[in-house]
């Protein structure tokens, strides 16, 4: 099987060194393994996506020396497919409408914790579990959430093969733990889908065999494996790479206004300089294309 890698940025800000590292690992891994490298623009958030940022992303990546297959897939062209997937899950009674706003959830959690002197449960990413049965308002605005308890009913044990290094240097066969997550959003209030849903559908559509992304998404893989199972999608191999952090130890991000590739270019940096600043080396490459045969699942 020819390995297929991808890089999937969101055009709601400029690329920084963390993006450059991920793009370079995917591109060079595809090149070293004789695989394919695809680019996807994750622009489901139409309120923040900007056309000029898409052009800047493409320009920065080309300047770094990356080449990709065309046409480039844009998630904004696939809302019908996302809605169809949600409809399928709803017909299986695996979803429900969630009306509470973030502010209402935060207020409920705060009141609960103050009253009971104990913490309300939270996802691995720190978000509080959705208080589904607590004074649910009936409003015109709602998100669609996956009913985790129902989804896990009659679901076999799931896992994935990790060629990277997750928390505590986890690699090899990883046991998925979707039960650690709340009823995750699969259809946002402001658009027809969510990251969790769209990413698994698009990776399946593009035939991605090797998903290479930052270690901050390691725990999300449990949710993605569950959605792949429920929607009968293929299981890729995963690789969660190291993150680049600032001097305070925080990962680089658009929200923190981390210095962009575009600005570094204006300051006179070369593509080789960017590779050096990322610490990119052959050790970062993904040369294991799939789960070894002796540990492959039947």
Describe the structure.
- With 298 residues, the chain is α/β, with parallel strands linked by helices.
- It has a single domain, classed as HUPs (Rossmann fold, 3-Layer(aba) Sandwich).
- 33% of the residues lie in helices and 14% in strands.
- The protein contains 9 helices and 10 strands.
- It has helices spanning 17-33, 51-63, 79-91, 102-116, 148-152, 195-205, 220-230, 261-266, 271-278; strands at 4-7, 36-41, 73-74, 95-98, 143-146, 159-162, 172-175, 185-187, 210-214, 237-241.
- It has a 3-stranded parallel sheet with strand order 1-2-3, with helices on one face. The chain has a 3-stranded antiparallel sheet with strand order 4-5-8.
- Helix 1 crosses helix 9 and helix 6 (195-205) crosses helix 7 (220-230).
- The two termini are 17 Å apart.
Describe the secondary-structure layout:
Elements: E1 4-7, H1 17-33, E2 36-41, H2 51-63, E3 73-74, H3 79-91, E4 95-98, H4 102-116, E5 143-146, H5 148-152, E6 159-162, E7 172-175, E8 185-187, H6 195-205, E9 210-214, H7 220-230, E10 237-241, H8 261-266, H9 271-278
Parallel strand pairs: 1-2, 2-3, 9-10
Antiparallel strand pairs: 4-5, 5-8, 6-7
Helix pairs in contact: 1-9, 6-7
Record keyword descriptors for this entry:
single chain; 298 residues; alpha/beta; Rossmann fold; 3-stranded parallel sheet; 14% strand; globular
CATH topology: Rossmann fold
Estimate the strand proportion. Answer: 5-15%
Give the number of domains. Answer: 1
As residue ranges, the low-confidence spans are none
Q: Which strand order do you get reading across the main beta sheet?
A: 1-2-3
How much helical structure, as a percent, in the residues?
25-40%
Biggest sheet architecture: 3 strands, parallel
State the end-to-end distance.
Answer: 17 Å
- The gyration radius over C-alpha positions equals 20 Å
The backbone outline, from C-alpha atoms, is: globular
């Amino acid at each position: 099987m020819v390995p297929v890698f991808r890089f999937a940025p969101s055009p709601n800000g400029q690329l920084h060194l963390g993006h450059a590292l991920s793009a370079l690992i995917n591109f060079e891994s595809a090149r070293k393994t004789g695989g394919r490298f695809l680019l996807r623009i994750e622009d489901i958030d139409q309120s923040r996506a900007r056309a000029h940022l898409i052009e800047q992303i493409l320009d920065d990546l080309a300047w770094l020396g990356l080449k990709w297959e065309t046409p480039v897939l844009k998630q904004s062209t696939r809302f019908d497919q996302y809605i169809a997937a949600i409809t399928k899950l709803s017909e299986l009674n695996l979803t429900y409408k969630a009306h509470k706003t973030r502010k209402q959830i935060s207020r409920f959690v705060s009141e609960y914790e103050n009253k009971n002197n104990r913490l309300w449960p939270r996802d691995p990413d720190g978000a509080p579990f959705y208080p589904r049965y607590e004074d649910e308002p009936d409003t015109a605005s709602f998100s669609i959430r996956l009913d985790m308890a129902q989804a896990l009913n009659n679901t076999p044990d799931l896992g994935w093969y990790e060629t990277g290094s997750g928390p505590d240097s986890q690699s090899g066969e990883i046991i998925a733990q979707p039960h650690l997550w709340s009823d995750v959003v699969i259809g946002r209030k402001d658009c027809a889908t969510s990251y969790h849903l769209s990413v698994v559908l698009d990776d399946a559509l593009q035939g991605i065999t090797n998903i290479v992304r930052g270690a901050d998404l390691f725990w999300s893989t449990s949710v993605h494996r569950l959605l792949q199972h429920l929607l009968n999608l293929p299981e890729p191999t995963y690789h969660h790479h190291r993150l680049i952090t600032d001097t305070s130890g925080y990962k680089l991000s658009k929200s923190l206004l981390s210095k962009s590739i575009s600005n570094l270019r204006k300051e006179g940096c070369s593509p080789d300089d960017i590779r050096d600043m990322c610490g990119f080396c052959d050790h970062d490459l993904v040369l294991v294309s799939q789960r070894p045969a002796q540990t492959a699942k039947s």
